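Practice record 12: protein with iron/sulfur cluster.
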Amino acid sequence: MTLFPEKISELKDYNCSENAFLPRVVTIPLSQELKCTCESLVKEGDVVTEGQIIAQPSSADNKYANIHASIPGKVLSLINCNTPNGRLEPAIKIALEGSFDFVGKKFLESKITELSPAEIIDRITQAGVINIFDTKRPENLSKLLKSATGQAIVVRLFDEDSTRITDSLITKFYLPQLIEAAKFLAKSIDSNKIVFVCDSKQADFSALEQDDKIIVIHAKHNKYTAGFKSSIISLFHKYTKKNPTISFKLSKKDVFIDSSSLYDVHKAVVTKIPSISKIVHFSGNCLKTSGLLNVKIGTTIRDILKQIGGLSKEPKQIIINGSIRGTAVNNLAVPITKYVKSVAVITKKSFTDFQIYSCISCGNCRLACPSKLLPDVIYNLTENNVVFSDEVKTSVKNCIECGCCNMFCPARLPLTQTQKTLKEKFFETQEKNNEQ
Ligand code: SF4
Ligand code: SF4
């Protein structure tokens, strides 16, 4: 175990993930994906088994995933709780009671390689696996697979937010499982195109490179946005130019997945264990030690901190999923959800303040933007309620929501958030109308 801050060089200090203590009570939010709040199937006083489906989306079209009980027990109440995305969401509170169906049991299946594509997708659906390649947009993996026949599987083995090391740690400990899971995914969508994107500084990937079913490309994880879809697509494009025998190109329609989600795929397909736990990295300058733990969904941050030695300083901020792309919450009662990869508990000094000033026209945001946009112009137009031209709308569409503009803005203006809101307003409403 190591001390905050997280650095890629600290990967060597970890041995493996440990199981967190079993919580006596879990609080499971009904919203685990973007724009979906599931409906509870249980009520106060009901007895549930480990892995039982306790909530499902209101639409029956498999667009969103089911939510399972992470422990066996009795439903204490349906409440509202603060969630890792900074919102207040409905949740189910369960008190531990009874025996476990999955904990401590070994599930070995010998005929796993004979599963049909439909059976693989069915196991992923039953398990409620969420793809958190983009932690800001968690989405139901089985829905993604059903519309991706013949597309490539693109696995990113490092964290897109370089202030986090969870995906890199999972890659370090579970690479054989990730390779197997990627092959299951390719089979499920009838594809033979598998691309692994790795950072050679993380580990030795020579074994991976010897697998002739997998194309391995190398990115620089500390060059921010290297882990975004658009950067990976252009990196692969350069690679194919040097390797003309590769006859396909990548596009945003391919299945992009991260180490953390792929690990859940392996669990779902090989052991049929539903998504009831998550590997999470805990760190921060308020903690005595940091650690990588396998945590039951719904366990509160406070319960985990007790296990890893408690607090050494008074915390002011809790950063979920990294300082660049994550969310700040200020409550230790926040539970772990399917989209949490890391928790950093820090003093206020470690994080930027939230006071907003006026734009001083320094130009930092323009220099920082990898898509060469003008975030300050868009922000100022929005503030002044100006009607947007088609040119501005196209510019908004090209924003990859990397957060670079926010990071370099001395006035702390919510530049990325403005782009995101406008994108939803201009394009997602239009897509919704087209779907209807
Ligand atoms: S978030 Fe900011 S820096 Fe990143 S692409 Fe969008 S406008 Fe550019
Ligand atoms: S970085 Fe912030 S203050 Fe500087 S031009 Fe951009 S919006 Fe204005």
